[in-house]
Amino acid sequence: MRHITTHTSPATGLRGIGDTSWQPHGVCHGMDPEDADATFFPLPRDHEAIADAKELCGPCPVRRDCLNYALENDLKEGIWGGLTEAERRPWHDGLPRRLDYRRVAAFFNGRDVHLTDAERQVVIDHAYVRGWRPDRLAPALQISTKHARDLLRQAANRVFDRDRTLGVPRRKNPVKKTTVARRPRPATAPPSTQQPLARPATPTPAHAPVGKAA
Ligand code: SF4
């Protein structure tokens, strides 16, 4: 079952989808909306206003959440997390390639977190290696079962190619135990009817010395 965090959940280091619980902890929380607009959406060359906004953001305890919120929701204008839109541009551009294993681990722990393209790919590959079936991956990624099946098939090919490139030996199928048919034992006669085997008579040598003959 997925755990969906909401705006009423306590703030954590890893924000879930739709989680706005960090906002009341921001230094700017409670500001008049017009003042907030004027402060955090200055003109690009209004250095004095930008410096004032950065001064507010500096000690803010939720700067990281604020920045992630802007990145994950593609908010490219204004100051978020203490960074101007120009300073955030490389972060926006590189976001699909961000690979934060804390998010991957959080996903497998049932958290409903934002995943970048790179993190989602790792999740799919791990799901394949863990033996997840399409009907398990589909609700976790909120996609159709058919889509999940296609993704797992692609992951299987990727893992196979990677193992072949790295020379990882393929797992052998466990050797099946073959059951050897037991040969039927010859029927033995009951003791009462068994006849003792006749020993072949040993001829006594004609020249055996007297007294030593058996
Ligand atoms: S980092 Fe700045 S914009 Fe973001 S919540 Fe804090 S004070 Fe507000």
TrEMBL record:
Highest taxon in the source lineage: Bacteria
Keywords from the named record: 4Fe-4S, Cytoplasm, Disulfide bond, DNA-binding, Iron, Iron-sulfur, Metal-binding, Transcription, Transcription regulation
Region span, Disordered: 163-214
HAMAP family xrefs: WhiB (MF_01479)
Compositionally biased region (Basic residues): 169-185
Domain 4Fe-4S Wbl-type, residue spans: 27-90
Family indicated by similarity: Belongs to the WhiB family.
One Pfam family it belongs to: Whib
Main location: cytoplasm
Modifications made to the protein after synthesis: Upon Fe-S cluster removal intramolecular disulfide bonds are formed. The Fe-S cluster can be nitrosylated by nitric oxide (NO).
Protein name: Transcriptional regulator WhiB
